[in-house]
Amino acid sequence: MVDFFIKRFNELDAVELYELLALRSEIFVVEQDCVYQDIDGKDHEALHVLGKKDGQIIAYARLLNKGVSYPDSVAIGRVAVANSYRGKKIGHEIMRFCIRLIEERKPQEAIRISAQAHLEEFYKQHGFKKTGKPYLEDGIPHIGMIRRSS
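Structure (tokenized):
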């Protein structure tokens, strides 16, 4: 079972910060062979969702208020699940957790994501709809998606 925790940047301890940055780097830089600036200045403004098993971060996402990534929507980004835990529905668990949290705290807000194109069907299962045409972000095909408030 995965336990989810929500922390602001200043509430993260050194080990958590190290683990979440290591997980993001492992997936978005090394695994995807993509050199890009992961530390983008938005972490200070984010709510960090940590999925922990046996005290270790195995899943992660960050939530950004309206105006940080998108002028008209809140955002979910940097969604990651450690390779050894994939195929166990943890990605779905963390997405449900993030969506529920946003709906509780900001019930009228739409949620936007910049999704890797191959994950379109995954995000559709969580109520996201494609917006616009595919585009390249850091050399990887992406699509804009939005989930309107209920």
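The chain has one domain: 3-108. Strands lie at 3-8, 47-53, 56-64, 74-81, 111-116, 129-137, 140-147.
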